[in-house]
Structures are given as C-alpha cells and as structure tokens.
From TrEMBL:
Start and end residues of each Reverse transcriptase domain: 1-261
Name the UniProt record assigns to this protein: Phage-related reverse transcriptase/maturase family protein
Gene Ontology molecular function, alphabetical: RNA-directed DNA polymerase activity
Signal peptide from the UniProt entry: none
Domain of life: Bacteria
Ranges that cross the membrane: none
Length: 419
C-alpha cells in the first residue's frame, strides 16, 4: 500500500494520542475532534504565515523550550514529522544501547583513545536553509509537505527563533536528518572503532596511533553549516597502561550521557599469559547527582510553603524510585527513574547512591543549615523517619516502582520541573 503523505481527516485523526485526550478531554467528543481536524486541514492548506500560531515558551538550562498551543497546529507538524521519518533512512539508537556498547568497548584490552565532543547550542545553530535543500534533494516529500515546512521555518524566523525550535518533536527529527550524512562519514573513517551521537553528545573510540589533531579538524570541518563544537566540553583520553595483577589504579575518568566511568589499569593474568578485561567502574555523574539533590531541596522548600505531607512524600518517591511516564509525542508509556535511567551501575559499588541517601538524611536530621531550620517545626520525627524509608539505594536495588496518575505527576514535578 502506498504511504499516505496527505493531511486528510483520517491521517490527522490517527495522530491524536492518549496524552492529547488526557490534556484536553474534549477531544473524546467527536464534534470537538472534528473541529480540531478541520482547523488542522485549514492550516495544512494555508501554511503557517497566514493566521497566528500560538507558542508556549519555558526555559531549561538557559535554553528556551517551545510547545505549540493548539493541537490542530501540533497535528500538522506531527504529520510532516511522520512523513520525513518515513522517507529518511536514519535509525535512532537509544541511550541504553549506546552505553551498553560503550561499556563493552572500554573494557577491551588493546590501547585506544576516547574523544568526547559536544555540539554547541545544537538546535539553535542548525541552518534551516540547509535542511530545506537536503529535504528537497533527498526526500520524496510532496510539494505540500515541502511548502508547509518552508512556511513553518519562515514563521520561526519571524518570531526571531533561530535554528530549530527546541522541544518540538519535528525539530528533533530534522536535527537528526541534518546530521545523518555526517554520522555516516565519521563512522566510516579509518581508525574509528566506535562512533555514536546522542542528540548533541558525540563519543568516539579510535586507534591511538591516529593523528588526533588531524581527526579533530576533520570532525570540525565536516559539521553541517552553522554547527560547531563547545571546546570547553571536549575531552580526549588515551588508555594504554597495563598494571600488575591486583592493581586497582584508576588511570582515567569519563562522563557521558549521565554516567561517570572510572577506567582502571589493565590487569595482567600471568598464569594464563593473557590480559583480562579492563575493570570499569560506572556510576551516576556528578551533574546528575547534583540534580537529584536540587530536587530534594526544592521539594522540602515547597513543603515549607504548602505543608502538604502527602505531596512531599510522593515527590521523594518520584526522586528515589521508579515510575512510568506517558510520552506526549506518541502516547506510549515508558519506564523511568533511578533504576531504569541508570541500569548499568552496580549498586554494591556505587558511591553516588549512598551519598544521596546520606545527603537526604543529613538535611532532615542534622540541626544545621537553612533547610533544617525551615522544616524542623513542621516535620515530626516520625514523619522524617517515614521519609527516610525512601532510599535511592533500595529504589535502585529493588526496582521500587510507584504509580502516579498523569495529574499527580504534573503536580509532583511542578516545583522542580526544569531542574
């Protein structure tokens, strides 16, 4: 059956998901749904430059995050997104798969060099004119799809939004499309053992005899127009040391995708005259550890304001445990939390899990600091003991799972949504 690129009532209706109905239950009413679909078809016919387009803007890590106000406009972008994905030949690799492969390669016995790179202001720096040229040249998109994409980019420029609007699923797809050829080119270079990119975070494992300076220049020069590396986040390490049997020396460390890796000296197995796999310790990164701490503090400060113990308890459950989230892009539930987001760490060796538990214990029990002074009179000893039963280590080890309704999740995350 031929793929349907059109913005028909049927094709647009199929893109309304459970998350949409939850956020606006009027969509379960057929007459309201028909009105939305009619507006979406009108937008698809007229483009994004005739009638106003509503955008909600929030800020996270000093970056603006955009979300369309009207579901009718969202449906049009979803259909363009679906069409581009269908005709593109790239396949996204998930974070867990990247970490699994990276961990296996870091354990290898042969010498290697690791290069970690970060693309600066990724979404904001993507050249939309370059994307339009590539879409026109390489994809079998209909003229209507192409013109809609072009008019949406014109709308962004008129709103003084540079590059791609961060937060929109279409932006994520277009960013991947823009870098697809770059990824293929770099992966196929001689001396590259492993290349992977997750959004704007790039990691390579290369032959240590490679000319690293020349490779760095190649990596830089081949980036699509407008993109550049954040040199302050570039890290290059060469691993070639071999230690004596029983050595526990840590020779290098590396952070990638929320994990912290400690690379040990290679242990020589003299009995079998062969090298064993390199020992790698893996833990939660310092940045993510601080994020957990910040959320705990914000939860307690909000409790000082509202004195809603049940809400505080649910927030601590959320931070220390596991849960499911409804992906607004596709209406599919996915598991998340302390175990599911960091499943490759070893809880018996982790330094971060007990550190987080001790941090929470100290701010609840040690009579010093601003947080303790704010909660000392409004949280009883028994209430504190109950809160301390919620442990990061146990949440990970036992895969403790909590169930929250979508409305409850929204309320839980409100005080630290962008932390």
């Amino acid at each position: 059956m031929k793929f349907d690129q059109t913005f028909s009532k049927v094709s647009l209706s199929r893109l309304i998901n459970r998350s949409d109905i939850y956020h606006d239950n009027r969509l379960s009413n057929n007459s309201v749904k028909d009105q939305v679909l009619a507006l979406a078809q009108k937008r698809a016919k007229e483009g994004f430059e005739t009638t106003p387009v509503g955008l909600n803007v929030t800020t996270k890590n000093k970056k603006k995050i955009y979300q369309l106000e009207d579901i009718s406009d969202e449906l049009v972008l979803r259909k363009i997104n679906e069409n581009i994905k269908y005709f593109s030949n790239f396949k996204l690799i998930d974070r867990d798969s990247i970490i699994f492969t990276l961990l296996s390669l870091l354990k290898e016995t042969h010498p290697y060099t690791v290069i970690r790179l970060d693309i600066k202001s990724f979404y904001e720096s993507v050249n939309t004119d370059s994307i339009l040229l590539k879409v026109n040249k390489n994809l079998f998109l209909s003229r209507q799809n192409y013109q809609l994409l072009k008019s949406f980019f014109s709308f962004l420029k008129r709103e003084q939004i540079t590059g791609l609007a961060r937060g929109l699923p279409l932006s994520a797809t277009l960013a991947e499309f823009e870098l697809n050829e770059y990824d293929k080119t770099i992966s196929n270079l001689q001396g590259i053992y492993f290349y992977q990119r997750f959004v704007d975070d790039i990691i390579l494992i290369v032959d240590p005899v490679s000319d690293i300076s020349k490779l760095q220049q190649k990596l830089k020069d081949d980036l699509p127009t407008g993109l550049s590396f954040n040199t302050t986040k570039t890290k290059i390490i060469t691993v070639d040391q071999t230690g004596n049997k029983g050595s526990t020396d840590i020779i290098e460390t590396l952070d990638y995708l929320g994990y912290h890796f400690k690379l040990h000296t290679l242990l020589e197995d003299y009995q079998h005259k062969q090298k064993s796999l390199r020992r790698i310790e893996i833990d939660i990164s310092e940045g993510k550890k601080n994020k957990f701490k910040s959320r705990l503090i914000k939860s307690l400060l909000d409790y000082h304001r509202n004195q809603d113990l049940r809400l505080l308890t649910d927030r601590v459950k959320f931070i220390t445990g596991n849960f499911s989230l409804l992906d607004r892009r596709n209406g599919i539930k996915r598991k998340s939390g302390i175990y599911y987001n960091y499943k490759y760490i070893n809880y018996t060796e982790s330094e971060v899990l007990p550190n987080l538990d001790n941090f929470f214990r100290n701010i609840l029990l040690v009579p010093k600091g601003k947080i303790y002074s704010k909660i000392s009179t409004i949280l009883s000893q028994q209430e504190r003991r109950n809160l301390l039963k919620l442990s990061f280590r146990n949440g990970f080890k036992d895969k403790v799972f909590h169930y929250f309704s979508p409305s409850r999740l929204s309320k839980i995350k409100r005080c630290w949504e962008y932390v």
